[in-house]
Amino acid sequence: MCDFHVRFSVLHYEVSPLSVPLSHFHLDHCGALPYMSEMVGYDGPIYMTHPTKAICPILLEDFRKITVDKKGETNFFTSQMIKDCMKKVVPLNLHQTVQVDEELEIKAYYAGHVLGAAMFQIKVGSESVVYTGDYNMTPDRHLGAAWIDKCRPDILISESTYATTIRDSKRCRERDFLKKVHETVERGGKVLIPVFALGRAQELCILLETFWERMNLKAPIYFSTGLTEKANHYYKLFITWTNQKIRKTFVQRNMFEFKHIKAFDRSYADNPGPMVVFATPGMLHAGQSLQIFKKWAGNEKNMLIMPGYCVQGTVGHKILNGQKKLEMEGRATLDVKLQVEYMSFSAHADAIGIMQLIRMAEPRNMLLVHGEAKKMEFLKDKIEQEFSISCYMPANGETTTVVTNPSVPVDISLNLLKREMALGGPLPDAKRPRTMHGTLIMKDNSLRLVSPEQALKELGLSEHQLRFTCRVQLHDPHSDTDTLGRIYTHLKSVLKSYSIQHVPDGTVIVESIVIKVTSSAEEPNLKVILLSWSYQDEELGSFLSTLLKKGLPS
Amino acid sequence: MRVCSELNDTHGPTAEEKTSVPNVSRVVASQKTRKRGNQFSFRRADMKLYCLSGHPTLPCNVLKFKSTTIMLDCGLDTTAALYFLPLPLVHSPRLSKLPGWVSKDGAVNLEKELKECSGRVFVDSQPEFCLPEKELLDLSTIDVILISNYHCMMALPYITEHTGFTGTVYATEPTLQIGRLLMEELVTFMERVPKAQAATCWKNKEIQRLLPGPLKDAVDVWSWRKCYSVQEVNSALSKVQLVGYSQKVELFGAVQVTPLSSGYSLGSSNWIIQSHYEKVSYVSGSSLLTTHPQPMEQSSLKNSDVLILTGLTQIPTANPDGMLGEFCSNLAMTIRAGGNVLVPCYSSGVIYDLLECLYQFMDSANLGSTPFYFISPVANSSLEFSQIFAEWLCQNKQSKVYLPEPPFPHAELIQTNKLKHYPSIHGDFSSEFRQPCVVFTGHPSLRFGDVVHFMELWGKSSLNTIIFTEPDFSYLDALAPYQPLAMKCVYCPIDTRLNFHQVSKLLKDIQPLHVVCPEPYTQPPPAQPHRSDLMLELQPPPMAYRRCSVLGLPFRRRYERIHLLPELARSLVPSEIKAGVSVATVSAVLQSKDNKHVLQPVPKPAPVPPSKKRKRVTEEPPEVLNPKPLLSGAVPLEPFLAMLHKNGITEVKVEETADGHILHLQTEDVLIQLEEDATHIICDNNEPLRTALRDLVLRFLQKL
Q1: pLDDT band at A2 (very low <50, low <70, confident <90, very high)
Q2: Exposed/middle/buried for residue B663 (C-beta within 10 Å: 0-12, 13-18, 19+)
Q3: Backbone φ and ψ of B120, nearest 5°
Q4: pLDDT on residue B166
Q5: Separation of alpha carbons A344 and A165, rounded Å
Q6: How far apart are CA B374 and CA B371, in angstroms?
Q7: pLDDT at B27 over 70
Q8: What does the pLDDT look like over B557-608, one tens digit per residue?
Q9: Which residues, listed in sequence order, are joined to residue A159 by a DSSP beta bridge?
Q10: Which H or E element spans position B576?
Q11: Are B585 and A505 in contact (CB < 8 Å)?
Q12: Does B679 contact A466 at a Cβ distance shorter than 8 Å?
């Protein structure tokens, strides 16, 4: 419950109120949904993947029952509210881009963690945020690993539950788990594994099922009735969301059709002999798992395996803390003699996983949520060191401002672009970058970059010609025509990369600069060189006038 | 003064030049552009469509768009198989006794290759298929292949293998998985019953000419090919990248492609191929009927410049619902009379709908105990796969998964043993099957697959019925090698794809500028020349293609997306030209990489040691082609004079001319000619003054 409030504020934090994408079906991620949509009055779209949409209402209903029926909470959402809320949910597929409105789009990526879990990319224009929800970077028995493309979000918001934990290999943990179960069963003990209906339960079932098959064990395995049975159906129908191996072989053998695992009946708890029971709920705070626990706790041959985290105040938490005497209702005390093992199978990314995801997505900024402050601080330093990006870890309710630096998209006229690319060549010359000139027209909401000529035309403006004429005097004992020829040769040698033309009518044209030679009859050797250029050739014109003033080489 | 006018006479811009060709350098530049333009071909027909298949429902087109080469579908025309003799699973005395063919005059003897059955001649060899055209363009240049549905990818191994193809194939997950099943099925059908030799003599042009019809008229027989192998299928499919509906896939930064639900089959898609400014829609095999797949997404097809339309219904006169009714009643009639029903069909697609329909129908018809058999090497896989693609199903079926229940009722048929599936007639089936029964099996061409066996087995009894539901083959041609036949034949083609009425309504809604379609859609069906309602009538008329056509698509690309780096954007100084319109001159360095264009600020030149710098300024010519902005506006006389005055130029003689004024700066001996659209500064030996005057003039003008 407390977790659920935390998450609620996080939700508010990173998602614009325009839409709510829900990452997966765990209550700490979707528990507040009916409250928000039916009681607070949020009326925008809600997005979920298909499996989340399928499983979420069941867990919500379960949550509601426990809270209202058992705890007596009154200001809580009703069954009808859950139904109404689910009607507003828009299912989405992985990698599908959903246009929420004209600017906002969201896209889901596979997150591992639990069936149907997704990470979301939220994008407006060229700016984007990725919110991971809970994710898992190593494939497990039934799910694949989270994956994202190099989408370079401005901010990557990642959970950091296991901020510093670099967990031992999954294989080791699995081997350990099987060994303990096996030993207990061999010596005739009973094993109780409290689980949540969906998620870890299926992973452990697959694990035990294959082990039983391989070792040809006969001790019965049960799972408690209720959700888990139904849950297996979901896994069968949403097999495309599981890992590669299961997907590949499902036609021959559906991994979620268990041969050795059967439905549990409460009377079985008193049966003699070894057995393994998966029972809900996972924290031993109520229900079947607690009932079975009470029956088996007194026998040291039995074993309790806690595969996940327990909230403070629950029986599970007390036992994990080594408490050997439990006070039960009616002043009775329960002696805990059975063996207790804690084995974390919860699928969160560890520090290595988080770093892996950063490497995949290449975010510009990093934001850590969900986790212990000290550990997060450590991870933050590590991230900042290794990736040289800013990393934030806001407290609940705190607002973080991240300044982005988006480039400005503009429509460039194709003529201008092609001309530029043709002149500049395919590869820019780093030493002599070519400068391109264009006119940016800002009209209504459009930005268009066109050539200056086109801009004039489009805006209905006429061009203003600015010309310069310069007379250079020079002594040259040749005919006018020869002088002009000498100028031509001179310029040819100086201006290698320019277009220079000697026009028969007695002019030399350099680019657009016109050069003429005249002289008077009185002083035929005193030549007047006329240079005339437009503003567009200003630099060249200025250069030529200076050059010619120095005379011609002899 | 004299000088000035002389220059104006000869080289000053004339009125005409002023407007059209402002200066020589730009004329040269624009000539250059035009030349390059051809090279880049960015004017008209920027986009080309190469049509490698003429078959309207098994398309294979290649679109060249911007710098990408995109193949749209990869359909395999299997109707060529109809020219061949069926491949029996067990020895067929009837088929082996068919007489060989010898020409009437005895001159041509092909009795080894050709067999005659009921007046028709068939090739006795492994059936071959007609491939998409391979010679029209170099297939190794294809960057990507977009697949619209699993029926339209069957030629994939021919294209991706042995052609140098190195690109990527995009398809949805159901399309890939079911497409794989159909390919594997095809391969199994062929490899199960190998033929010792391949017949090729009959293909000789001189000989083919002499053969009886329809073999005589078969076209391009030399390009026909045998079926591919499993290795080739695996290799081809390893090139597939999965995509989801509405997923935006970037191709080389130039083009974005997006699959959209087309409503025809599991995972079937139409494709949007677009850049920021152009949009092509590829509509292939779409359906507006509510069957099992997700409904067709229509609105995203709006605003297309070009819409390529393929895969309309092949039986425009038949209503699928009516056909389904007929299917059921014929089936019931036969079963009641104690006969068996044979349904030649593909292993995925309409069969799911048939089973669902029969699931309801059989009980109501009191035939609940009749067994259904689905026989195919991939029957089990097909049935299993259909249940796990909830995301790709219509809402009705999707909501079943939420319960959680399997989306298709055939799960229940299997559970209750009403539907049984077998990989082939061999094995368990032969011992388990009961009659009368309904058998679903392939291949619908009746040339290979288990269906051949049932034709031999049941063909002789008039109690039995064969019901054709697949529209791909002419049922008369399909039956030809089994004649004479006693079994009843019912033709109930179920083609859920768009009919002409639906498509014209769709096009009215989505309003594409141009439509491209296979030629047959532009005229009434040959068999019904008066039915002008069975063709596309559009304004402007659709552009029709046939096999080997190359169409230039009418496109005029005018803009491209470019990004200004934030630093550059911040440095711009916009000025308002008129209400609501501002301009800013942009001088920047263009960087183009992976078809993405970015403008960045001009880097400041590296500082040069001062001693050297002087030398440079005087001796090195300025950078080539670094044009100044264009100018606009006017220089008004009085304010300009005031400005001169302010800058210490006081002795100015103003002379009025026809077009404006001439200012004579007497002390400096400089002439300034002011006209409405032009300013001319004549200044001889005073460069600092000239540049000062230049800057004063520029203050009055707008830079563009």
Answers
A1: very low
A2: buried
A3: -120, 150
A4: 95
A5: 12
A6: 10
A7: no
A8: 788 889 999 888 888 888 888 888 888 888 888 888 877 888 988 877 655 5
A9: A369
A10: strand B575-578
A11: no
A12: yes
Q: What is the ipTM metric for this complex?
A: 0.80
Give the pLDDT mean for B289-299: 93
Neighboring chain B residues of A414 at a CB cutoff of 8 Å: 42, 557-560
For range A229-234, the mean pLDDT: 80
SS3 letters for B447-515?
A: CCCCHHHHHHHHCCCCCCEEEECCCCCCHHHHHHHHCCCCCEEEECCCCCCCCHHHHHHHHHHHCCCEE
Q: How far apart are CA A398 and CA B328, in angstroms?
A: 66
State the amino acid at position B99 in one-letter form.
Answer: P
Confidence (pLDDT) at B6: 37
Instruction: Specify the 3-state DSSP secondary structure of B402.
Output: coil
Measure in Å the smallest separation between the Cα of A447 and chain B Cα atoms: 9
pLDDT at B9: 39
Nearest chain B CA: its distance from A175 CA (Å): 31
Q: How far is CA B501 from the centre of its chain?
A: 23
Poorest-confidence range of A93-97, A267-271, A499-503, B443-447?
Answer: A499-503
Residue B503 has what pLDDT? 95
Cβ pairs A/B, distance under 8 A: 317
Up-side HSE of residue B261: CA atoms within 13 Å toward CB?
19
Give B102-139 pLDDT, tens digit per residue.
Answer: 888 888 888 889 999 988 999 999 999 999 999 999 99
Please identify among residues 377-406 of chain B the ones whose CB lies closer than 8 Å to any CB of chain A.
380-381, 384-385, 387-391, 398, 401-402, 404-406
Classify residue B109 by its DSSP letter.
B
| Residue of chain B with shortest Cα separation from A506 | B10
Chain A CB contacts of B585 below 8 Å = 437-440, 452
The candidate with the shortest Cα–Cα distance to A119, out of A105, A108, A127, A128, is A108
Provide the terminal-to-terminal Cα distance of chain B, rounded to the nearest Å. 31
Confidence of residue A248 (pLDDT cuts 50, 70, 90): confident
pLDDT computed for residue B55 by the predictor: 93
Å between B116 CA and nearest CA of chain A: 43
Say if CB A151 and CB A129 are below 8 A apart: no
Reduced to 3 states (helix: H, G, I; strand: E, B; else coil), residue B394 is coil
Question: Residue A170: in which H helix or E strand, if any?
Answer: helix A170-186
Report the gap between the CA of A223 and the closest CA in chain B (Å): 18
Q: What is the pLDDT of residue A164?
A: 67
Q: What is the pLDDT of residue A383?
A: 93
Q: Do B398 and A91 touch (CB under 8 A)?
A: yes
Q: Which residues of B touch A241 (CB under 8 A)?
A: none
CA torsion angle for B311, B314, B318, B324 (degrees, to 10)? -70
Q: For B589, which of A408, A435, A470 is closest by C-beta distance?
A: A435
Q: Do A93 and B391 touch (CB under 8 A)?
A: yes
Is B543:B518 a contact under the CB 8 Å cutoff?
Answer: no
Min distance B445 CA to chain A CA atoms (Å): 27
Say whether B25 and A456 touch across the interface (CB within 8 A). no
The most confident of the ranges A8-22, A423-437, B12-26, B601-615 is A423-437
Q: Which of B652, B656, B698 is nearest to B671 (CA)?
A: B652
Tell me the CA distances in angstroms from B113 to A338, B101, B287, one per residue in order: 81, 8, 42
Range with lowest mean pLDDT among A60-64, A108-112, B64-68: A60-64
Q: How far apart are CA B515 and CA B535, in angstroms?
A: 13
Nearest CB to B563 within list A239, A409, A438: A409
Instruction: Determine, for residues B3 and A448 on separate chains, whether the beta-carbon distance falls below 8 Å.
Output: no
Residue from A130, A61, A57 nearest A91 by CA: A57
Helix A50-64 / helix A227-237 crossing angle, nearest 10 deg: 170
Chain B positions in Cβ-Cβ contact with residue A527 (cut-off 8 Å): none
Q: Which residues of A participate in catalysis according to the annotation? A: 159
Q: Are B276 and B560 in contact (CB under 8 A)?
A: yes
Tokens of B287: 């359906």
Amino acid in position B120: R
